[in-house]
Write the structure tokens for this entry.
Amino acid sequence: MDGAESAALLVGAPAVVGALGGIPAPVRGTANQTLARTRLSELQSLIDNRGYTYQPGTYERVRMPIPEAWQSEHDYLTRVVNGDVQLYLYDAPRGQIIEMIGTPEQADVIMTFMPGTNTTVESFYDSTTRHGITALTNWQVASSGLDPGSWTRCHFGYAAFVRVADVGAVSVFS
């Protein structure tokens, strides 16, 4: 497949490319960044078009508050779109996400972290390098004494379960 065909597939079917095993991690990241951009636009529309309510006691018509879940997802996806977070898998309708930290092509060590069974995709939205589920692997890399650039860390998130096929997708990194 030539460059133009690859670019067309990336634009025309980012959900397929972003979840397809055997696709290089940077290409999957670009596809999933496109999906995140689309979801971010949908969220912004929900936020902009949220309804009105009446203030108790005064009956003054005011905008409804932005739901916390929308705001945290919006903030996280903004980080993805800006390139601060890389997604190896992003399937919002199924509640599946794999966050990748580092550059797999340059890594000497690949570390994967599977959060507990009560973890949800929302757990990723407020996680940062200092707290939340991504903080543990960042601490492990910092404590190893090795060059942080030689590591790639993957965090799996899911709504209810991770299929074996989804976990096997990480074999692309080896």
In short: The radius of gyration is 18 Å.
